[in-house]
Amino acid sequence: MRRVRLAALILFFLFPFVLGSLNTCVVHAYTQRWGPGAVLAKVHGTIDEGVRAYIEEALAIAKNKHWPLILYLDTPGGYLDTALSIVDMIDRSGVPVITYAGGRWAVSAGTLILISSPLAYASPHTVIGSMQPVMVTPEGVKPVNFSKIINTLLKILEVHCEVYGRNYTAVKLFVVSNLNLDGEEAYRYHVIDGVANSIDELLVKINGSIVKLYNGDEALIVVNGPVEYVEMPLRYRVVSFLSDPTISSLLLSLGSLIIIISLASGHLMYAPLGLLLLLLGLFGLGYTVNTLALLLVILGAILLAIDMIVIPGFGITGATGAIMLVLGLALLPLSGNLLVTAEYVRILLYTAISIGVFFAALSTIIAYKVASVVRSKPVYQPDPIGKKGRALDEIHPDKEGFVIIEGEYWVARSRGGVVKPGEEVIVVGKDGPTLIVEKASKGGSAG
């Protein structure tokens, strides 16, 4: 009996420790450690297709390294569809993303990304908010009040606020009332998870945090190692530049004008330049980088082939083809499942430029050779009047025969007598392609 009581007493004291150990095992079974380093991506300016592709690449790098991604925002906003696409990428990536609004502002589309991230931080004086969608019309910028769009946006924000424990009441005012808050106010109203004056301070604050991800998993953030900054590649910068509505409209207008003028005037060699501007202008209409890059490569190769084979001479057609080829190869995306280094991207870019320069140089050499032939002095005069030669046949005034003049064979007829084969003749005239000759002994003159 005494042994039973002793066993029960031991179990009574050991039970809490056993239960705690089991809980610890359960937590570690569903919590992944991310670190010890971090990947840093910085977004400055409008959120567009180039920024979306840049963040997608940064997410792939972070996932491959199993490091958290720190997304720095300094943006006045951007395209709603693009921002929603970025949010969807973050949700599906399974990467703990810490979005840090550390610049002057992160309003509109920037706030949407900030609120929808697993961890949201801001600088104390950074402004966030003003999320009501707008559209650009010929009359100017107009707010979007369609319930279909507004309600969808609000629901997306509500779901993310529930997942990450944020104040949806304040977030809703960002959309319906264009409410603006600075970082301190946003933290006070539980819109974001904290404030930090710099990225270094942010790293200290998030180190050791357990972050809930959109898919329900938890991530333990351990950042006591290096921070790898992923710079925005040149091709994404080009895409962002071409996605600007002003630039896009200008390119489309100029391209259309050049094509119309070239067709109307008959100077078709300028049409490829207009085509190039039209293709570049399509970026602003929402066409993907993949499609336009492929079109640029194909059309560039065709124009270079036309310039070298059909119309030799490095003119506007060849120059446009070389530019298309270089731009197309530089903008061609890498495989989504392939992770490469920045050095590889630079090599790819240099290779694209080298190919374009090679074709341009080849066309230039061909053009130089053609120009040299055109400028070279003929080895004989097209009308050899006054030249002496020798008759190969018997030639009469009404019977033609062959003569040889400075190594060239000509059809000739005589004037004033019969010329025997082998006799020396002199050219005194020309009737179309037929020469008029006399015996050289007569001393005939040109006439």
TrEMBL record:
Bilayer-crossing regions: 276-306, 313-335, 347-368
Main location: membrane
SUPFAM superfamilies per the UniProt record, alphabetical: ClpP/crotonase, NfeD domain-like
Gene3D superfamilies: 2-enoyl-CoA Hydratase, Chain A, domain 1 (3.90.226.10), Nucleic acid-binding proteins (2.40.50.140)
Pfam families reported in the protein's UniProt record: NfeD, NfeD1b_N, NfeD_membrane
Keyword set includes Transferase: no
Signal peptide: none
Localization in the cell: Membrane
Record membrane topology: Multi-pass membrane protein
GO cellular component, one term: membrane
Residues covered by the NfeD-like C-terminal domain: 385-439
Coiled-coil residue windows: none
Top-level taxon of the source organism: Archaea
Domain NfeD integral membrane: 246-362
Keywords, comma-separated and alphabetical: Membrane, Transmembrane, Transmembrane helix
Domain NfeD1b N-terminal per the UniProt entry, residue ranges: 43-134
Protein name, per record: Uncharacterized protein
Organism this protein belongs to: Pyrolobus fumarii (strain DSM 11204 / 1A)
